[in-house]
Structures are given as structure tokens and as C-alpha cells.
Design goal:
The chain is α/β, with parallel strands linked by helices and 219 residues long. The protein contains 8 helices and 9 strands. The protein has a 7-stranded mixed β-sheet with strand order 3-2-1-4-5-9-8, with helices on both faces. Strands 6-7 form a two-stranded antiparallel sheet.
Length: 219
Amino acid sequence: MSDSVDESYKVARYRTEQERFWAGEFGTEYIGRNQNASIVAANLALFAQALRGARGIESCLEFGANIGLNLRALRQLLPHASLGGIEINEEACSALRCWLDASGGGQAHHASILEFCPPSAVDLVLVKGVLIHISPDELPLLYEKLVQASKRYVLVAEYYNPTPLAVPYRGHGERLFKRDFVGEMMDRHRDLRLIDYGFVYHRDPLFPQDDLTWFQLEK
């Protein structure tokens, strides 16, 4: 069987076009465009702000971790916490696993976040720049998984829009969606309360992010 057939087989098992998109070649190419020290520094600044009111975080699971640039920042903020990540792209997950092994351990799960069932709840669930790439039809399922996986905190950092909006993404349609993800989560899960939120501008002179709005939720 050729490599191209192998790749087609690997991505065919996912039920949405968005999953296949990130599990395949585009997801692998994304790795090369997004790995440098400045990203980790910006993440460190964002998480230091977003988590300033959080207490007792001893475990964290990231949904859609890619190669672990968010977790690398969290490792500096929470050096004794147990970290883990779920990643759909095999190559990215391999890099994540290598970093976790080299930096103190943790679990890297190669799976779709729509299919993965965490074996136990953690203190902090993180999702950053991922909900925007999920099929809108699957968001209620994913909201449920995020809430179920958390013992106490859920940190969401995504593009915000008051109404649902599809945006072209690097020449592709139906691959990036903006909406009020956290508002929808809180409407569905009344045990969540908003404890903090903020915005990071892409022209921030020190630690820019891609116009992300972050929300810290507590159960």
C-alpha cells in the first residue's frame, strides 16, 4: 500500500470534514508554521493573566494540543502539575509526546477530541484556537466533553463573535468559525460561572496573540 493510500485511510475514519482536514496534510504543515519561542512567551503572558485567580491546579488536559506550545507555557507556570494533551494529527501528537517525556512526563493522546473520553477529570481543561475549527454541528458534544473532563476550571481562548460567522481560512471554506462559544457553554451547563475574561490584540507590543478572547470558567 502506498503512503498516499495510507494517509487517505488514516483520515477517512473521521466523521467530519474538519477532523479529516487537521488529521491530514494541512494539519502536518501547520506544525512548521507554528513553533517558535515567541509563541511560548506570548502564551506564558496570556496564561499568567488568565489563571491569576485560579487555585490548586494539580492537573491539566488540553483539547487540541498540537505539539504542546500551550502546555510548555503552563509547565513554567505550574511546574508541579500533571499535564496532558489530546491531538488528532499523528505527527503533532508524536512531537507532543516527545516533549512531555523530556520535560517531566505526561500523557499525549492521539485521537479526535470529538471521540476521546478522558479516563478521569482534571483540575484545569484548556482549549485554545480549536473550537473555531470544529464543525458547528459538533459543538454541543464538545462542550459536554470539556465540562465533564473538568473538576473545577475550564479555560477557553478563541475568536469571539456575538453571532455565528464562517470565515475563509487559508483558501479553505468551512474551516474556521467565530461565535460566542463560552456563552453557548454557559447556557447549556448552568453549573459553570464566568470568573474572568480578557482580550489579546495582534499588535500587542510585547506578547501578541491572534486577537483572542479568553474566558476562565469555574464549576
